[in-house]
Amino acid sequence: MGFKIEHVRLHWIEMPLVHFFETSFGRTYSRQMILVEVCCGGVSGWGEVTCGEHPYYNEEWTEGAWELLNAYIVPAVLGKSFEKAAEVGKCTAGMKGHRMTRGGLEAACWDLEARLAGVPLWKLIGGGARPEIPCGVSIGIQDSVAQLLGKIHTEVDAGYQRIKMKIKPGWDVEVIREVRREFPSILLMADANSAYTLADIDHLKKLDEFNLMMIEQPLSHDEIIDHAQLQAALDTPICLDECIRTAHHAEQALRLKAGRIINIKLGRVGGFAEAIKVHDICQRHGIPVWCGGMLESGIGRAHNIALATLPNFVLPGDVSASRRYWKRDIIDPWVDITPRGTIVTGDAPGFGYPLDLEFLESVRTRHESHAAQ
Fold first, then answer.
1. Are 49 and 63 in contact (CB under 8 A)?
2. Which of 201-231 are b and which e, b meaning 16 or more Cβ less than 10 Å from the residue's Cβ?
């Protein structure tokens, strides 16, 4: 049926985290997020720009994303008509990088198309391989090993099927040893967020004794070749994250045997169209994938749920309950998990969760509106 982008509204919201979240590149206490609302015929589709407040995960950061949206991305699509949301990315294809920012608008267009068609987003993208998606959690670097063990106990008791713990030099081998001593049989993985180099091969080989599901992105955010050398030296599978921004990157990594698992983050690859391509390439090569998270609000979390219904998302991802991060979410009801550690998908049109517009307004600190002429 197609749609025309008649109006784009940008909402900057700020929400404190329930507990700080620390990775190898810093500690976060609150999130500043940009929500993108695209409108056609009185219907709104919503997306989320998933970059961090600072350019440490990749080159993107919230303030830069705000400027890029207003100056380049929104003008590139405003007033244009599209047969499918998959076409929207072509309008910004000439822009280098900044896939999280571009992907926030692209995701909103997929949500809009699903709402106009009266179908759930997961169905529009070709998902629905499973009515429930398996869930894991990501636990940041803590102030002490005892604090970390306590958090893992909480999440295991809640039913989560996989525990991911952040690591960095000085918080890795001996900490994992303590975790394995306390939890000998849980599905456990370590996420390094690019904290190591090839000079650390001998040190990273020590992780092989802990029966980890994977070590995620141990080397530089833009490095594929060195990951191939490291993977050849490790028994533990490497999972690639930051360095896979396109389907072509995935093909290169698989040819080089740079990793045995790929984490697909919707924003990192620029939206659903590219995420589906990465998924399909991995499926053809027998490489399992899972859905990574970026401390999203309920909107981004709901988009991740839809993505994780594609058939090759066979490993528990980072999609977890809203209450782990927020005292109150901008959707109502919130995302929650079953005692089995799963999230049940629904049949409501679009991303599937009603917005709590009153709360959204209360946490919104900036707003821009663009209307087609």
1. no
2. beebeebeebebbbbbbbbbbebbebbbebb
Closest CA to 36 of 60, 3, 12: 12
| Count of other CB atoms within 10 angstroms of residue 141 | 20
Other C-beta atoms closer than 10 Å to the C-beta of 32 total 19
3-state SS of the chain is: CCEECCEEEEEEEEEEEEEEEEECCEEEEEEEEEEEEEEECCEEEEEEECCCCCCCCCCCCHHHHHHHHHHHHHHHHCCCEECCHHHHHHHHCCCCCCHHHHHHHHHHHHHHHHHHHCCEHHHHCCCCCCCEEEEEEEECCCCCHHHHHHHHHHHHHHCCCEEEEECECCECHHHHHHHHHHCCCCCEEEECCCCCCHHHHHHHHHHHHHCCCCEECCCCCCCCHHHHHHHHHCCCCEEECCCCCCHHHHHHHHHHCCCCEEEECCCCCCCHHHHHHHHHHHHHCCCCEEECCCCCCHHHHHHHHHHCCCCCECCCECCCCHHHCCCCCCECCCCCCCCCCEEECCCCCECCCCECHHHHHHHEEEEEEEECC
Spatial separation of the C-alpha atoms in residues 227 and 366, rounded to whole Å? 41
Residues of the chain with pLDDT > 70: what percent?
A: 100
pTM greater than the 0.85 cutoff: yes
Q: Which residue ranges of the chain lie beneath pLDDT 70?
A: none
Structure tokens, 71:
């100056």
Closest CA to 165 of 147, 146, 184, 148: 148
In the numeric block, the tokens 């940009």 are attached to: 34
How far is Cα 225 from Cα 221, in angstroms, rounded to an integer?
Answer: 12
Q: What does the alpha-carbon distance between residue 186 and residue 318 come to, in Å, rounded to a whole number?
A: 16
Give the residue numbers annotated as catalytic, written as ranges. 166, 265
CB neighbours of residue 333 within 10 Å: 11
pLDDT tens-digit profile of 318-356?
999 999 999 999 999 999 999 999 999 999 999 999 999
Write out pLDDT tens, residues 120-143: 999 999 999 988 999 999 999 999
